[in-house]
Design goal:
The protein is mainly alpha-helical. It is about 50% helix and about 0% strand. It has a domain of about 120 residues. Strands 1-2 form a two-stranded antiparallel ribbon. The longest helix has 27 residues.
């Protein structure tokens, strides 16, 4: 895949629309039927789509590729993004709770990115952490089905927390587009 300049060649697996990641008929984020009804259902639908997008951006890469810091001097990598989003899911639960904050998953500031090393055990743990933290935050928010409900010590609205979650994933999916293209030339959609 690398050429004389050591840059990845752009590629895609799409055949109908070669500038896309996958063809629309093969895109698991595309759903038939009407859009979700109501504010919470819409926010959850967007969140689900961005979560799926992040996983798609990481698909098919080995531990070294996932841990590659493609844009020096940044410590950001695809694996670092997975670990970071697990960490922020946990932190969002702290915003919902009135109790003591949960401890950090990976340690001090930036440990989520700094510890994203090319080791399959680290990759596997990162995905387990992300799934567990997403499920726990989803469960905590499910206890508050009214979007205007105020939660936690700071009285944040459920709506605000969900919008922030969508924004965080969307922002990092943009990073993942660029990181993936630097790793192997696969272009985003």
């Amino acid at each position: 895949m690398r050429g004389m300049t050591d840059r990845a060649t752009r590629w895609t697996q799409a055949t109908v629309y070669p500038d896309m990641w996958v063809d629309p008929d093969d895109d698991p984020r595309n759903t038939d039927g009407p859009s979700p009804e109501g504010e919470l259902a819409t926010l959850h639908d967007y969140l689900t789509s961005y979560r799926m997008t992040l996983r798609m951006k990481c698909q098919g890469l080995d531990a070294e590729q996932l841990a590659r810091r493609s844009v020096p001097p940044s410590t950001m990598s695809l694996l670092g993004l997975v670990r970071h989003l697990a960490e922020v899911e946990r932190d969002w639960r702290n915003w919902i709770s009135d109790g003591e904050p949960l401890p950090k998953l990976y340690g001090p500031r930036d440990a989520d990115f700094d510890g994203a090393v090319a080791d399959q055990a680290v990759v596997d743990a990162a995905y387990r952490d992300l799934e567990r933290e997403q499920a726990a935050t989803d469960a905590a928010l499910a206890e508050h089905p009214e979007p205007g409900a105020r939660v936690g010590k700071d009285g944040m609205a459920v709506r605000e927390l969900l919008v922030h979650r969508v924004e965080e994933y969307a922002r990092h999916c943009g990073h993942a587009d660029l990181l993936r293209e630097c790793v192997d030339g696969r272009v985003g959609q």
